[in-house]
Write a structure and sequence with these properties.
Protein name: Threonine dehydratase, nonfunctional
Structural class: mainly alpha
InterPro entries: Ser/Thr_Dehydratase, Ser/Thr_deHydtase_PyrdxlP-BS, TrpB-like_PALP, TrpB-like_PALP_sf
Organism: human gut metagenome
Strand content: under 5%
Keywords: Lyase, Pyridoxal phosphate
Pfam family, one: PALP
Distance between the termini: 15 Å
Shape: elongated
Number of helices: 4
Oligomer: single chain
Order of helices and strands: HHHH
Amino acid sequence: RIYKTGMPRSNYFSERCKGEIFLKFENMQRTGSFKIRGAFNKLSSLTDAEKRKGVVACSAGNHAQGVSLSCAMLGI
């Protein structure tokens, strides 16, 4: 599953920027990055026929990990 990640206020950056600054911790996802969100969003919108054809990800990094985990979650 895709985790709900924390988004605490940064006192340090808020004071220096004179505004409300929050940090989104997408590094806490299983894959270590935000890439799974986009991959899962796209793959979940595929038709059944498209899912049966399979998916190819040309990446050796975070994107491929996001696609791979999303495919496993969606049974692709």
